[in-house]
Amino acid sequence: MQTGTYKEAVTGIKMAIIHKNHPDVKLDQTQFDIIQTKLLTAVDINPSEEIPPLFLYSKFAQGVFWITCVNATTRSWLMRTISGLGELWECVELNVIDSKDLPKRPRVLVRIPDISNVNTVLTRLRKQNPEFNMLGWSIMSRKVIEKEHTLAFSVDSDSHKALARSNFKAFWGLGRIIF
User: What is the pLDDT of residues 122-162, one digit of tens each?
Assistant: First the structure.
């Protein structure tokens, strides 16, 4: 994986290679490795008479393959190359988008009056609130202070709509909590 200076990373054209159903479906490490290998192979077989694709930086984080292109020619090459890879594994379709267009999931914050381990907390929330698709929730941050958890979640849009319908209240133990 390439690395570069911070200035290079922010001055190029920052792109994101994502699963077409992102943010609900994220790429995993194995999938990233396959994509990276295919891109490197495409760079290697690029005809010598053509302008080579030039990249400043690349990394894999949070289910996204981030790659910074030097110029618009490289950006076009990347988009063509990814779309030409076909099906790399079952049921995948990749998108290449400008980083600023990356779809974001709603985020919510909740204080839970319990200091049990986080799996116990999640299980109780899931059981008492079946309208939430908690398997698709990601914990963005977690603090345990005195007798409570403060959790920030990234949630799927259907769960966010269910939270909105309930005025951002959920059942918890013998009462309710507010998101």
Answer: 899 999 999 998 887 888 888 988 888 899 998 988 899 99
Given a contact cutoff of 8 angstroms between Cβ atoms, the answer to whether 149 and 124 are in contact is no
pLDDT tens-digit map of 46-55: 888 888 999 9
Local structure of residue 17 (DSSP, 8 states): E
Whether 18 contacts 61, CB under 8 Å = no
Long-range contacts of 43-50, Cβ-Cβ distance < 8 Å, separation of 24 or more: 46/77
Please count the other Cβ atoms lying within 10 Å of the Cβ belonging to residue 135. Answer: 8
| 3-state secondary structure at position 30 | helix
Q: Which amino acid is located at 46 in the chain?
A: N
* 20 Cα distance to chain centroid: 11
DSSP per-residue string spanning 19-67: ETTTTTS---HHHHHHHHHHHHHHHHTS-TTSPPP-EEEEEEETTEEEE
pLDDT band of 37, cuts 50, 70, 90: very high
Q: How many Cα atoms sit within 13 Å of 108 on the Cβ side?
A: 23
The terminus-to-terminus CA distance of the chain in angstroms comes to 39
Q: Please answer whether residues 15 and 97 qualify as being in contact, where contact means their C-beta atoms are separated by less than 8 angstroms.
A: yes
